[in-house]
Design brief:
Number of strands: 13
Strand order of the largest sheet: 9-8-7-6-10
Low-confidence stretches: 1-15, 31-44
Strand content: 5-15%
Helix content: 40-55%
Radius of gyration: 48 Å
Largest sheet: 5 strands, antiparallel
């Protein structure tokens, strides 16, 4: 029994040791995991892109503004563009209704920076002291930062009615507030400003250049003149470079793309100058209405340059298409390309005008919606234009005629010279131009003389009455032989017959057809046939009759004569 008991005790003890080791391993693993979790650095706070800017009360507005500007300052210090974009959230807490639309983005950012610099130099914010809501007896309408003229006021109308924003007066005077306190240090515990640094020029320019003359400092007038000259020089350099490129391209297989380079020649130089002038505005530090004027002028210039470039590129594109159209047998593309060119040019101008308006800060969609009020009147006024437009589409797709055809429409007759949106132009045979509205052509009877496969010649050849029958028959047979031998006459259907006894001639009817593509070829073929008929008559010895009349006068009896 003793050995078994010792063995049993040894087995139990061994099991306990294994269990103890297992618990120690689990404990060590848990401690290691916990230490790893504790040692892991906290995840940096992330900015939610769709997080709304709260402006429900002065406290919310100030907190939203201050948090956004603190993030902006950190973004300036670290180069984090995401944090730098938070200044746009701060701008949303400002009332910019009185600021011109062109300047709202620039002016809003400047005001936000100046306000943050001012607040951090005069006070440490305590949000608990900023009101969060009013009462029924005393509704909350405005709040002013202690010992300052910085005001947050409630908006009563417009899209942002009910929100609390920094007042328009505060926004307008933000720079003056900063100028009063810029010599003070930041208050301990504040946000330490917005990372703003004084412009380099203001620190280093001599005092005489800072004196103002006609709304601008002297150094700004000097800089404006230099900027204009440099911009014109850049424009000249760009145009000169493109001229050199054109000369090089002409000697290479790329010569067929010369029209594209020519399209860039004028607009690109002006675009480069406008871009340089935009950069100059930052250096020259214009403000107020002066800045608004220059920004508006440059935006208009930029838009017009883009429209000019698109217009020139449209001409280059349609030039390529016209080259392809000339290589095809179909004449439809010859009509479509000019129409496409005019359509693209109209679209370029319309879109250019809308782009210019949009760049000036005007909501184009709201403007178009406002114009919809008078849409009925515009539609009534434009009904003829719409009818002409659909008439042009009918001409293009139904193709009753095409450019170059000889057509007769009512009393108008001529060769189709151009098919436009509004009208079709005919060049008459006396070289004038007739414009016929396409809406009339859509419903008119159009006689297309240019679509004839054969062109008829019908005439009467009049021979004198003394022509012998044998010569008459030889003349008729000779004309038939001329028709059969001519390369441009219809051989299966023609008539040459002695047709009638005329008042003064023997009439031979000539009825035949020419197979020619146009009127010019028809005239040449008629001349050849008629000349050969004249030669035939001379060789046979027959003569053509003149219109003549013979007058017979009966003798009247004399006075002394008597009748038998």
């Amino acid at each position: 029994m003793a050995p078994r008991t010792l063995k049993t005790l040894f087995t139990v003890e061994k099991a306990r040791m294994y269990q103890m080791h297992s618990h120690m391993v689990i404990l060590l693993f848990s401690l290691f995991t916990a230490s790893a979790i504790i040692a892991q650095p906290a995840e940096p706070p992330r900015i939610t892109a769709l997080k709304p800017v709260k402006t429900d009360s002065p406290r919310d507005t100030m907190r939203s503004f201050y948090d956004a500007m603190n993030d902006y300052r950190r973004g300036i210090e670290t180069g984090n563009e995401s944090l730098q974009s938070r200044i746009d959230d701060a701008v949303r807490t400002l009332n910019l209704e009185e600021t011109p639309a062109l300047l709202r983005e620039e002016r809003g950012r400047e005001a936000a920076i100046f306000l943050k610099e001012t607040i951090d130099r005069v006070i440490v914010l305590n949000y608990e002291l900023i009101p969060a809501e009013g009462t029924a007896e005393a509704p909350l309408l405005r709040w002013r930062l202690r010992d300052t003229e910085i005001v947050i006021a409630r908006i009563d109308q417009g899209e942002r009615a009910g929100e609390f924003l920094f007042s328009a007066d505060t926004v307008r005077r933000a720079e003056s507030f900063y100028n009063k306190v810029k010599g003070l240090p930041y208050v301990d515990g504040s946000g330490m400003g917005s990372g703003f640094r004084e412009p380099f020029l203001e620190k280093h320019l001599p005092e005489w250049s800072k004196a103002r003359f006609a709304f601008l400092a002297r150094w700004q007038w000097i800089g404006l003149g230099i900027a204009l000259l440099l911009g014109l020089m850049i424009r000249t350099i760009v145009r000169f470079s493109l001229d050199i490129s054109l000369k090089v391209i002409k000697k290479t297989p790329l010569a067929r793309h010369e029209s594209i380079v020519r399209a860039f020649r004028g607009p690109s130089g002006f675009l480069a100058a406008v871009g340089f002038w935009f950069l100059s505005l930052k250096i020259l530090q214009f403000d107020g209405n002066t800045l608004g004027f220059f920004i508006a002028a440059l935006k208009i210039a930029f838009s017009l340059s883009m429209v000019w470039l698109a217009y020139r590129l449209t001409e280059a594109l349609t030039g390529y298409l016209m080259g392809f159209a000339e290589k095809t047998e179909s004449s439809l593309d010859d009509m479509l390309v000019p129409l496409l060119q005019r359509t693209l040019k109209i679209l370029v101008v319309i879109l250019g005008v809308l782009m210019t308006i949009q760049n000036l800060g005007i909501n184009v969609f709201s403007l178009l919606a406002g114009l919809g009020i008078g849409g009925l009147a515009v539609a009534l006024a434009a009904k003829d234009a719409v009818a002409n437009f659909f008439g042009s589409l009918m001409i293009l797709f139904d193709r009753p005629f095409q450019v170059g055809d000889w057509i007769i429409v009512g009393v108008a007759e001529g060769t189709v010279e151009e098919i436009g949106f509004r009208s079709t132009r005919l060049r008459t045979f006396y070289n004038s131009v007739i414009s016929i509205p396409n809406s009339e052509l859509m419903n008119a009877k159009v006689d297309n003389m240019g679509r004839r496969q054969y062109r008829r010649l019908r005439t009467t050849l009049r021979l004198t009455y003394d022509t012998p029958p044998a010569k008459l028959k030889a003349f008729v047979d000779g004309i038939k032989e001329i028709i059969l031998k001519h390369p441009q006459t219809r051989k299966d259907y023609f008539h040459v017959v002695f047709n009638d006894y005329g008042p003064s001639s023997l009439d031979v009817m000539l009825y035949m057809f020419f197979e020619v593509p146009d009127w010019t070829e028809e005239l040449l073929a008629r001349e050849q046939v008629l000349t050969e008929i004249l030669t035939l008559a001379e060789s046979i010895g027959v003569s053509f009759a003149f219109p003549t009349q013979t007058l017979h006068i009966e003798s009247m009896p004399t006075a002394g004569s008597s009748r038998q």
